[in-house]
Amino acid sequence: MKSLFLLVSLLSFDSRINCCHYLPTHVDHQLSSQLQSKAVNKKVMIKVSLLSQENKLPPLGVPPQPNRDIGFATVFITLENPQEKNQTVKIEKVEIRNVTDKKLQPFQFKPKSVELKPLENSVVDIHLTNKTGYVGKDKVKAIITYKIGNQTSVIESQPVTVDKSL
Predict the structure, then answer these.
(1) What is 10-42 written as a DSSP string?
(2) pLDDT for 116-166, tens place per residue?
(3) pLDDT tens, residue by residue, 57-104
(4) CA–CA separation, 126 vs 74, rounded Å?
């Protein structure tokens, strides 16, 4: 009985909106065509996120090693090719920097190319390590320099706190 009352209420609400012209009947078509035109105008949509960690002590049960990795950063780059043709994204530089003083953290990255097929979504994860850990006590962010065709762009992750375990 309650579900029947809810159905009747929704139908009458819908007819009131349509009869009073609160919403045009072609609004769905307008929104979807606007979204499509924005997606078509972009070559590749990119999003970046970062996980950062520092482990000064080795894991339990593992003997200390003088030259082991201490600082870890994983950068996730989400790529979306909205076009109906292949796109190549060249990731030229990945930097981890302090938020306040922009100081560069000691990680190394080699440029990498990613080939996206038409309408393909892909997540590229880049694992960076160092033997010194993080410099400073600030939040950090990933700064990615990438190139599509002849156009070079930069995108940043949101700042994150370094997970430091002694």
Answers:
(1) HHHHHHHHHHHTSS-TTHHHHHHHHHHHHHHH-
(2) 999 999 999 999 999 999 998 889 999 999 999 899 999 999 999 999 876
(3) 888 888 888 889 999 999 999 999 999 999 999 999 999 999 999 999
(4) 6
Q: Could you give phi then psi for residue 135, rounded to 5 degrees?
A: -95, 125
Report residue 110 as tokens.
């080699």
Longest CA pairwise span in the chain (Å):
77
Residues in the chain, overall count: 166
115 forms beta bridges with: 88
In terms of Cα–Cα distance, which of 156, 158, 163, 133 is closest to 46? 156
Q: Distance between terminal CA atoms of the chain?
A: 61
- Check: CB of residue 87 under 8 Å from CB of residue 116: yes
